[in-house]
Amino acid sequence: MVLHLNEGFNRIGEENAFAVLARAQALAAEGRDIINLGIGQPDFRTPEHIVEAAVKALHDGHHGYTAATGIPELREGVAADIDRRLGQKVHPDNVLIVPGGKVTMFLAILMFGAPGKEIMYPDPGFPIYRSMIEFTGAKPVPIPIREENGFAFSADDVFGQLNAKTSLVIINSPANPCGGVTPKAEIDALVAGLDAWPDVALMSDEIYGQMTYDGQEHVSLLSYPSIRDRLILLDGWSKTYAMTGWRLGYSIWPDTLMDAARKLAVNAWSCVNAPAQWAALAALEGPQDCVAEMVAEFDRRRRVVVDGLNAIPNVSCITPLGAFYAFPNIAQTGLGAKQLASDLLEKAGVATIGGPDFGILGEGYIRLSYANSVENIERALKRMKEFLEL
Ligand SMILES: Cc1ncc(COP(=O)(O)O)c(C=O)c1O
């Protein structure tokens, strides 16, 4: 028997964080004490008023399909939230409710990726960008994210590689896996330079937009009118409201792309889970202290992680300014990053992710998610130190 799969399946990748999670869970099931600094999800529970809104929606009979683009109340709620947080006007007609933040990148890359095209993406970066670009047959063109730049992207690196084949540029700030926040000046330079490239679309992944520290400003690409007609914005509820398992996200599409996005939604999932959409609305309209409290706690842990990592011989870590990841440089240990991540899990019981799982430039680094208690973070750092001092 020969089954004829689309040849994109020879190239598609995946997200190794899920394989590490499965291995960490398997080791824990064997009775090992595993500290999980691998997967990127808040360790908090979804706030109660959001859970209650989903329960109420079920009791109120929200059991059926909704519009493919999302319930109108939620699309309006997203527009109002963007106005409240960022002072930017978005029309609810341009909002698409999707099952998880990841889905927006899937749609955008499907729209713009094809053999003969090039798509630029951050490296190290969220692994699905490259995976999906490869799947479509487009050429993946990495935008290097460097430690010496504070793990921010540089507009020069984008313009040094843009060409007539480039169909889409993906940027992400605050960023996974490095925790970098790109300064406004660099984003200004990117947007200004794009004037010369009117046919290049942009996808801005702002899923960590509300997680910045040390007074860092999150600069949304929505605040640049000159690119609005080709900007796709990715955001969602997973990180901000500790809702990773709800599978909820949204995108903002320009008028010219909205119908294509809607058609893909109809073809793929019809609509997002109805009670989850009502919960998402409660998240946006309810008290926001839960977000501030979570971010304050991440900030506290961030300091513990950075100090602890810098106290380990041959490890150095710059202070991340956003998201909830630290990306220490481990090159001086002399160990390959994937090997170190694997040894830390198998021998020291600490789950982390090897930098190369986020791109070629991730060699020499590992990613720690500090979405875990201070107590567990301190235990993990102690184990890492002991392991590396051996
Ligand atoms: C940069 C980035 N974008 C998007 C996502 C996807 O989020 P979701 O879980 O809502 O699909 C993640 C999740 O880790 C992420 O790190």
- How many distinct helices? 12
Tell me the total number of β-strands.
12
> How would a crystallographer describe the biggest sheet?
7 strands, mixed
Largest sheet: spatial strand order: 2-8-7-6-5-3-4
The number of domains is 2
Look at the helices and sheets and give the structural class: alpha/beta
Rg (CA only) = 21 Å
For the record, what CATH class of the largest domain applies? Alpha Beta
Tell the overall outline.
globular
Helix and strand element order: HEHHEHEHEHEHEEEHHHEHEEEH
CATH architecture designation of the largest domain: 3-Layer(aba) Sandwich
How far apart, in Å, are the first and last alpha carbons? 52 Å
Give the DSSP E fraction (strand runs of 2 or more residues).
5-15%
Low-pLDDT stretches: none
CATH fold-level topology of the largest domain: Aspartate Aminotransferase, domain 2
Kindly state the mean pLDDT as a whole number?
A: 96
Bound molecules: pyridoxal-5'-phosphate
